[in-house]
Specification:
Layout: H1 2-29, H2 53-70, H3 74-84, H4 96-99, H5 107-128, H6 130-157, H7 173-186, E1 191-194, E2 197-199, H8 201-217, H9 229-239
Antiparallel strand pairs: 1-2
Helix pairs in contact: 2-5, 5-6, 5-7, 6-9, 7-8, 7-9
């Protein structure tokens, strides 16, 4: 009986040791790690398990789409356009650089933006954590806004009619392009398509191309999404440990 107890004790100890070993192995292989992942305090799946910028933008865009299309009040819509879009006419207020990323008025763009926020925001949130992702959003919003204002100032300086240079930028597009580009950096050694093999890094190159293309093709009177995601991707690659991610 004594020998049987000893044998059972040995088996239990081996099982416990193996379990710990597997946990350590999983933590080591996880590209995001657990140091930045935030434990949820709300009964919803990520990224809605905490109050974070992805959740705020997701819900904010839905709210403003409903407001602009179903409020029935011209005064409310005019207020939203003035304070939640960005142009050379209101950039001096500063806050439109940030509030403009909440604004949305087209259903197709809303669906696309919300899907991209959910898909890429969730994974990058696990990598950067809530605070650094908030700073990342601020960087993309300010960078995209400055590019938009700079282009409008350039057009006004070279003789465009001020009534023509009236395009307002809005939406989380710079942040989304930044998320796509950063995900491409994180998984740059992997393929998101196997046949034919297309690496994740292609997404980062795509962001850079879209940024440059939008700067030179946006019309002075055109309303829509700003650019600027490539700026944040470049900064993130230089300052965060993406080079250690395999």
């Amino acid at each position: 009986a004594g020998s049987e107890n000893n044998a059972l004790q040995g088996t239990n100890s081996v099982k416990a040791y193996t379990s710990d070993e597997d946990d350590n192995k999983d933590n080591h292989e996880n590209p995001y790690g657990e140091q930045n992942a935030e434990k949820g305090y709300m009964p919803f799946p990520p990224p809605f398990h905490t109050v974070n910028i992805v959740m705020v933008l997701f819900l904010g865009n839905i709210f403003f789409y409903l407001l602009m299309n179903f409020s029935g009040s011209d005064e409310i819509r005019d207020f939203a356009v003035e304070h939640f879009t960005l142009s050379h006419e209101n950039y001096h207020l500063i806050y439109p650089f940030f509030t403009s990323s909440l604004y949305q008025e087209q259903i197709l763009q809303l669906v696309i933006d919300c899907w991209l926020l959910y898909q890429f925001g969730n994974s990058v949130l696990g990598f950067l954590g809530g605070k650094r992702l908030l700073a990342f959003w601020a960087m993309t919003s300010v960078g995209g806004g400055l590019l938009h204002i700079g282009r409008q100032k350039f057009e006004l300086y070279y003789g465009h009619d001020p009534l023509e240079v009236r395009g307002r930028c809005f939406g989380p597009n710079p942040f989304i392009l930044g998320l796509v580009g950063v995900e491409g950096l994180i998984f740059r050694h992997l393929n998101f398509m196997q046949n034919p093999p297309v690496p994740f890094l292609v997404m980062t190159a795509f962001v850079m191309i879209i940024d440059v293309w939008r700067i030179f093709t946006t019309k002075p009177e055109e309303h829509g999404a700003p650019t600027g995601g490539a700026l944040a991707v470049s900064y993130t690659h230089l300052t965060l440990p993406t080079k250690r991610i395999v």
